[in-house]
Design goal:
- The chain has 249 residues and is an alpha/beta fold.
- The protein has one domain: NAD(P)-binding Rossmann-like Domain (Rossmann fold, 3-Layer(aba) Sandwich).
- A seven-stranded parallel sheet has the order 3-2-1-4-5-6-7, sandwiched between helices.
- The two termini are 34 Å apart.
């Protein structure tokens, strides 16, 4: 994996930060992209302190001009991008009948349109290299029945459909496309939801019923991404890898 350049979106914290740090340990140069530039800079500093190579990037993934500016900055600094992790996302807990058009559009713009914009921006590098890894971060709720998150899980279901379409389209070009679908992961986003009482029952009851009865760690999502970005995963495409403690059963 040496000499590869990766772009990880939503990399200022949580699963994105852990994935960027894991890639750096594997010898991959990393573009740490987040809408919160100071958070991205903190991750960059941590990577560099440990001997890795990284650059912090600020972008709103739902804005094409913002995305292209960030991608061009990464190319100029570190070279062509051949690994992409589409991790940036926003969520909202809301009964379906109360979802506003503005909320629906925001969820879709970041979670689904953002995947389209960032992937399209980096794709020429992968095509030119005849090698690429696109990893989309989904959500296990898109495989299950979960109330009050219809717009969020619809966006993640759309992401998985896009994963399969891209896998079919890009496989002959040496590019694999897969989805990693996290379960209940201990991230700042999850902690906020817990603190705000968004879940109908205590989180311990939810994940306590899983075959592996605990919250997942961001590092476990990073490990799955590192595998799918490796040469060992070269014959794996169009797949959904659930890292969820068995929650979907």
């Amino acid at each position: 994996m040496n000499q590869k350049v990766a772009l990880v979106t939503g990399a200022g914290s949580g699963m994105g930060a852990s994935t960027a740090e894991r890639f750096a340990r594997e010898g991959i140069a990393v573009g740490v992209l987040d809408i919160n530039y100071s958070a991205a800079k903190s991750v960059e500093a941590e990577i560099v302190k440990k001997g890795g190579k990284a650059i912090a990037l600020e972008a709103d993934v739902s804005n094409q001009k913002s995305v292209i500016t960030a991608v061009n900055a990464l190319r100029k600094e570190l070279g062509g991008i051949t690994v992409l992790v589409n991790n940036a996302a926003v969520e909202e807990f809301c009964p379906f009948e109360s979802i506003t058009e503005a909320s629906w559009d925001k969820i879709m713009d970041v979670n689904l349109k953002g995947v389209y914009l960032v992937t399209q921006a980096v794709l020429p590098d992968m095509v030119n290299s005849a090698w690429g890894r696109i990893i989309n971060i989904g959500a296990f709720g898109a495989q299950m029945s979960t109330p009050s998150m219809g717009h969020y899980y619809a966006s993640k279901g759309g992401m998985f459909s896009l994963t399969r379409c891209l896998a079919a389209e890009l496989g002959s070009k040496g590019i694999t496309v897969n989805t990693v679908s996290p379960g209940f992961i201990d991230t700042p986003m999850a902690r906020r939801a817990i603190e705000e009482g968004k879940f109908p029952v205590a989180p311990e009851i939810i994940y306590g019923a899983y075959p592996i009865p605990r919250m997942g760690k961001p590092e476990e999502i990073a490990a799955a991404c590192a595998f799918l970005a490796s040469e060992d995963a070269g014959y794996i495409t169009a797949q959904l890898l659930g890292v969820n403690g068995g929650a979907v059963v």
